[in-house]
Amino acid sequence: MALEKAEKSEVRIVAGTLRGRKITCMVHPGMRPTPQMVREALFSILGNAVPGRVFYDVFAGTGVVGLEAVSRGATRAALLEQNTRQAADIQKYAELFGVADKVQVLKADAYRWAERWVPPIGGPVNLFLSPPFPDLQGEKLDAFSKLVTDLLAKAPDESVLVIQAEDGFPVDALPDLPAWDVRAYGRNMLLFRVKGDDVPAAGGAE
């Protein structure tokens, strides 16, 4: 069976101080760059919860979501990426865009990082999780569910945790399912959870 090859792609920052800046990247099998429509929806729903907060892009990939957060006013962004080349590319674009002082690129395994994570002092944060396809299936799904539980337990009250998944994701694997706000955008899903809330984060599914 032939191996799937990486494909060259280009993504664009939608709004804010870096509006229109482009990131060229190689998309490897299993990577899920967040579509522009979904990014627009993500930041529209987060709204005023972006400026003044730290933003964590936990499975950063291209880094476009974390960089978009900085563009839209996040005080800083921490982008986790295990792949050495991709992490280096994120750092390159942070420097090229003049925001390296607001971007921390962490070459780390997201699951190990979550176990050690200590949230910053100073109020709520935003956490965005867009894991690779295999992490949302089979045995790895249990590890992902634990990661979500750990992050929610540690995050300050009023923090927002968002998961990007695709149609078919077993939402019942998430802790305290009624507290999640699930939005559908074609095949893509965004799932929002506000720490400390026992009701959906932003109203209900569209």
Specify the number of helices. 5
Poorly predicted segments: 199-206
- Within CATH, the superfamily carries the name Vaccinia Virus protein VP39
- The rounded Rg comes to 16 Å
Largest sheet: 7 strands, mixed
The CATH topology is given as: Rossmann fold
What is the averaged pLDDT score? Answer: 89
Question: What is the CATH domain class?
Answer: Alpha Beta
Tally of DSSP β-strands: 9
Structure report:
This is 16S rRNA (Guanine(966)-N(2))-methyltransferase. InterPro entries: RNA_MeTrfase_RsmD, SAM-dependent_MTases_sf. By secondary structure, this protein is α/β, with parallel strands linked by helices. It has one domain (7-194): 3-Layer(aba) Sandwich (Rossmann fold). It is 27% helix and 23% strand. It has five helices and nine strands. The protein has helices at 36-46, 64-71, 84-96, 110-116, 138-154, and strands at 7-12, 22-27, 54-57, 76-80, 103-106, 126-129, 160-166, 181-185, 188-194. It has a seven-stranded mixed beta sheet, with helices on both faces. Strands 1-2 form a two-stranded antiparallel ribbon. β6 (126-129), α5 (138-154) and β7 (160-166) form a beta-alpha-beta unit. α4 packs parallel to α5 (138-154). The longest helix is centred in the last third of the chain and has 17 residues, at 138-154. Mean pLDDT is 89; it is low at 199-206.
